[in-house]
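WARN no homologs supplied; continuing
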Amino acid sequence: MKNRIFSKCDFLMPAEADLEKWSVIACDQFTSEIEYWDEVQKLVGDSPSTLRLMLPEAYLQKCDAETEAEHIKQTMRQYIDEGVFQVVESSFIYVERILPSGNIRRGLIGALDLEQYEYSKNADSLIRATEGAVPDRLPPRVLNRMNAPLEMPHVVVFIDDPEHTVIDPIIYNLNKPDRLYDFDLMMGGGHITGWRVCDKKADAVEEALGLLGDPELLVKKYNIQGKNPVIFAVGDGNHSLAAARICWERIRETLTEEERLTHPARYSMVELVNIHDSSIIFESIDRLILGTDTSRFFEEAHAYFAEVSGEEDTSYTIELHSCGRMEEITIKGLNIAGLITACGHFARDYTKEFGGNVDYVHDNAAAELGVQAGNAGIVLPAMKKSELFPTIIRSGAFPRKSFSIGTAREKRYYLECRRIKRK
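OK structure emitted
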């Protein structure tokens, strides 16, 4: 059985451009560090670059979004007309990214069928978001994509493949002539190498994905009688993929049934990554309450979480940090999404009654800053890889700021492009 949801496509790759200048990090990174993007501008100069095919969000408040969107589309058309691109036909691209940490992330780039994707919290589609979309973040992305001739999304989509049957076998069949690129990424992004995967190798990938997504096997795997399974979970770039879906819905209304089957805008280019890849590490995003009255923090927390319960056979321990001390609370009956939601609700409710505001922090910041005067921190457990897919199936998308996957410099860089508008 072959997979039909994630498929080969025709890629556009720069024919002669300096790839280090061509490839820049995703537009939603370093949004508060405009100096990062100013440095990128200097590095790129007048060279062809994906920097000219997108708008860094750091600049959103300093420009007219509609004017910039039109300029981006004009540059896309210019690059096409001037022969900047060469076509890599009917392929996947296997990618090895050496991250700044030294870990190697392995991925497979192809086209995902947007007809099988929904981004609402209670979606029951085969492709689902891991976190809920923020409506305010969609319009700029829709504006940039609608009527654009090209796409180059930074979307990373997870598969749950503990036996490593889909991506890993490609490693043993790589040939030097199939190597498309091999270079250092700018601004400390590590190194990236990509190989074309086509013909029988591509057929093997589709066959393995078909087996991984067999509905009967998924029902047994996740013990989900009465619920639709998830085959693909959007791990990064939720808003970009949601914008692609919105644009497709608008375009779809102008097409015949036959045209809808093959229109390029029906698909979005994504990088598929196995959640069990050794480079994928889930880190908790903790809650930090700043500028509050902490005198009742522990009392209120114990009272609140004593009332929290659920029907799951689970047990999690959270840490409370405030007033120079730490206490632990064990919470039973919730899945990991329910626990994150409960901690978020408590932090929000506490600030409503006792003042302050909630920040979302990584690493050890909630513990280190939570004990300072006027602050309080809630440290959550990190999610296990085995929890992601079953939780989405049972509870829908996670609340915003639920978990983190890697640092900013480890996010996807733009490199490959694909046509999404008929010539």
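The radius of gyration is 23 Å.
OK
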